[in-house]
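PROTEIN DESIGN WORKSHEET
SECTION A - STRUCTURE
LENGTH: 288
TOKENS:
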């Protein structure tokens, strides 16, 4: 069996888990997806992710539950069912083991931290302009991406991943003057361990691919969706700080229902010679 065939099977399994992690994924389903015995694919998976398939799925479920507790008003039982737990007590036990607090206590602590965060960003004695944003529908499109997993403050590793995407796209003739690069922010860094936070560094495809993907590159389809668009000028680090402001004042300034989809980032004026303080980051947060 060729190396590329093995990679394709692994990538197919990874995409399947990311889409269906809240369903009943048993050994038979995994073997059907990747055409490997469960024992063998589990060994490969653990070597790459430092955790078994089962632990990976359980972590995704609990992290998604934490996001719901933080950003939604769903009840604990509803959240447990939404992320794939049939029993609330089993969910609460697993959640407490992961986050050292019950789901309800986690929600209350998050609300308290949010209030403290607001006070830190904008003390009571300072006037604040409301968040500026636009409502925009992004159309359906397909993008090629390479997943980066790790700390979003690790600029060296991020630059290396971006260079890999650019070099691959350039080699395959995918880059033109109209090319659009994008980051898909999968996880909340305050919920996921930094080492497991996922970001998909991407280029939007102008036409269907006419070649088979190699290495760990994958494609994904974005469906037409409504977003709140924020624009920030400044360094990469300052744009991360801007995230704190967005969500600290979301309830008072935006007042729209969040949708459970990744945040998207676009960089309309990026170039090698642009100063950091002039870089513009457009952040898109999905809403209903």
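SECTION B - SEQUENCE
RESIDUE ASSIGNMENT:
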């Amino acid at each position: 069996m060729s190396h590329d065939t093995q990679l394709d099977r692994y990538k197919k399994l990874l995409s399947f888990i990311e889409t269906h992690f809240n369903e009943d994924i048993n050994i038979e389903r995994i073997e059907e997806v990747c055409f490997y015995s469960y024992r063998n694919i589990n060994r490969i998976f653990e070597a790459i992710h430092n955790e078994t398939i089962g632990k990976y799925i359980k972590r995704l479920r609990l992290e998604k539950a934490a996001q719901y507790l933080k950003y939604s008003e769903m009840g604990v039982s509803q959240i447990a069912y939404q992320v794939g737990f049939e029993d609330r007590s089993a969910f609460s036990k697993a959640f407490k083991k992961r986050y050292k607090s019950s789901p309800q206590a986690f929600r209350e602590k998050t609300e308290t931290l949010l209030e403290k965060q607001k006070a830190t960003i904008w003390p009571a004695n300072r006037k604040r302009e409301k968040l500026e944003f636009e409502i925009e529908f992004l159309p359906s499109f397909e993008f090629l991406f390479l997943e980066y997993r790790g700390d979003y403050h690790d600029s060296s590793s991020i630059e290396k991943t971006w260079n890999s995407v650019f070099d691959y796209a350039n080699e395959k003739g995918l880059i033109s003057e109209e090319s659009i690069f994008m980051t898909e922010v999968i996880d909340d860094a305050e919920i996921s361990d930094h080492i497991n936070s996922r970001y998909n560094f991407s280029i939007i495809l102008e036409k269907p691919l006419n070649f088979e993907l190699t290495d760990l590159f994958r494609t994904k389809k974005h469906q037409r969706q409504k977003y709140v668009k924020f624009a920030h000028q400044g360094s990469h680090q300052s744009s991360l700080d801007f995230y704190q402001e967005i969500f600290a004042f979301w309830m008072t300034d935006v007042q729209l229902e969040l949708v459970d989809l990744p945040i998207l980032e676009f960089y309309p004026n990026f170039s090698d010679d642009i100063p950091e303080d002039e870089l513009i980051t457009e952040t898109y947060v999905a809403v209903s």
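SECTION C - NOTES
The two ends are 46 Å apart (CA to CA).
Residues 117 and 123 are 10 Å apart (CA to CA).
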